[in-house]
Amino acid sequence: MAKAGRGPKPGEPTISYEQMKEFYEKDEYDIRLNQEHHIGIEFQTHDVVLRALMARKWEMHAIENDDLGSYVTTDRPVVITWNNPEKVPAMYRDSPGFGMPDTEVLFPITKNLIVIGSFEGKDGTVPATTPLVAGANTKMIHHAFEQIYGPKTVILYIGPDMQFYHDRNFLDKWERFKQKPNEST
Question: For the residues of 1-59, what is the DSSP string, one character each?
Fold first, then answer.
């Protein structure tokens, strides 16, 4: 069996596994990283993401009717999703990129205004509709890490049975759905 790695160069000290393990377990070392290098990489990344965001068409959806409730936000306020996830291989469905076609980026600006950007859409402001508010709230909640924020506990959303609901039972409905995936709630 061939050895992995290049091995020590002539003159380099050799360290056994036991020595390395003992060094690690003593925890008497600090790892320092050049922060300036990482900040520079972040700036380069920001430029790439900014260009992708500027290439999108942005539509603002304003809630003008109290019957629609409000938008929620979460501890992950910017959500990017595939428009047609069934056309994307399963292993890539959870990781769309800001520059990928057939995706949308959404984030709430206020409780009554959300911005949605896509390459295929159009720029402008339009009144929000029941399907849009319910869909946006559902996407926001499904992409949350742990926390959901909203001005009221009653929200408009899409349940696991694909029906619109305007209540405070989102988590209960979806939890029951996860426990009984073959039955509708």
Answer: -PPSS--PPTTPPP--HHHHHHHHHHT-------HHHHHHHHHHHHHHHHHHHHTSEEE
Cα separations in angstroms, 122 against 71, 75, 174, 175? 21, 28, 32, 36
Residue 59's φ and ψ, nearest 5 degrees, are -120, 130
Do the Cβ atoms of 149 and 72 come closer than 8 Å?
A: yes
Q: How far apart are CA 154 and CA 166, in angstroms?
A: 6
Q: Give the pTM.
A: 0.73
Over residues 80-117, the pLDDT tens digits come to 999 999 999 998 888 899 999 999 999 999 999 999 99
Q: How far is CA 55 from its chain centroid? A: 20
Residue type, 96: P
* C-alpha torsion 43→47→52→53, nearest 10: 80
Tokens of 52: 């992708």
> Is the confidence at residue 181, as pLDDT, over 90?
no
